[in-house]
Design a protein that fits this description.
Strand content: 5-15%
Bound molecules: iron/sulfur cluster, FE2/S2 (inorganic) cluster
Structural class: alpha+beta
Distance between the termini: 54 Å
CATH superfamily of the largest domain: Alpha-helical ferredoxin
Length: about 280
């Protein structure tokens, strides 16, 4: 590998295809963000690319050959730990699950840290804010067992409703893409889509009896979400964050805090735990 100086990458990219054809392997140009504490610049590198490689492979190759001090976070290399989140060609993605052959071959691949969180160094950001959000959410609060032997009876449909939310790997790509956090930096007022998914998993759990709608309305900033669906688009676990989690939560908040008829019914009968409109895919 060679490391062309800044500014030479475009010329290199244009020339490399013919050269790659001649020698039977591919090289790709990269622009990787280097710097600390929010300050920095793109540095240009070139990596050898073989069939099946992902962006993380190339970053590790660059780290091994050209930039031993390049800071990059990863653990599983299997799309399950959520550590290698970055912005690849400007889009929030997992580096270990982004194949080189799905990126345009005629331009450098840019790799940057997530922007919604404080920058630490190179590709690493401080995502610890996320871990401080979770304790603010009322934990799982199961109802009393249905049978004397301490077991519950649950409809399969109710079990399946929350399964999707449990796939979250806490990569925080949805948090990164959400304009409320990314552009407006409202971290004190909005918990972000990842934690709305977490609340939805608890609120729709067939055994849970806690009511988190007051917190959703007053502390978690649910009203800031304007259903742009960007979070759903970037989720590597394909969780339908907006339609299946956020919209049903918005409906619950409206029903419980702004619908006088339902408020009267609740006063008489007690709070309903499950809402027939929580059906996955509901867009109501
Ligand atoms: S749908 Fe809501 S939570 Fe998701 S990215 Fe858009 S504003 Fe953020
Ligand atoms: S909901 Fe999806 S994008 Fe958001 S943290 Fe979980 S896995 Fe990542
Ligand atoms: S290294 Fe674990 S998700 Fe990418």
């Amino acid at each position: 590998m060679t490391a062309p100086t800044t500014g030479a990458v475009d010329a290199y990219t244009a020339a490399q295809a013919a050269q790659d054809d001649a020698v039977g392997h591919a090289t790709r140009a990269f622009r990787v963000w280097r710097g600390a504490d929010g300050a920095g610049a793109f540095h240009d590198y070139v990596a050898d690319v073989d069939e099946g490689m992902v962006v993380l492979d190339a970053i590790q190759q660059i780290q091994a050959s050209h930039a031993n001090d390049l800071a990059v976070r990863w653990n599983c290399k299997a799309g399950k730990c959520g550590s290698c989140s970055a912005e690849i060609n400007g889009k929030p993605k997992l580096m270990c699950m982004t194949r080189m052959d799905e990126l345009p071959a005629d331009e450098p691949v840019t790799v940057e840290p997530m922007r919604a969180f404080p920058h630490v160094r190179d590709l690493v950001t401080d995502v610890s804010w996320n871990f401080r959000v979770k304790p603010r959410i009322q934990p799982f609060t199961p109802r009393a067992p249905d049978a004397p032997d301490g077991t519950w009876r649950i409809a399969q449909e109710d079990v399946e409703r929350v399964q999707e939310f449990r796939k979250c790997i806490e990569c925080f790509l949805c948090q990164d893409v959400c304009h409320v956090l990314r552009d407006h930096q409202l971290h004190d007022e909005f918990v972000g889509p990842r934690y709305l998914v977490y609340v939805a998993a608890l609120e729709m759990h067939p055994l849970d009896i806690a009511d988190r709608t007051t917190e959703l309305k007053d502390q978690f900033g649910l009203g800031y979400c304007n259903i742009t669906k960007c979070c759903t688009t970037v989720c590597p676990e394909h969780i339908t964050i907006t339609d299946n989690a956020i919209i049903p939560l918005k409906e619950r908040v409206v029903d419980r805090h702004y619908d006088p008829l339902r408020a009267l019914v609740r006063l008489v009968r007690g709070p309903p735990k499950h809402d027939s409109r929580d059906t996955p895919g509901s867009k109501r």
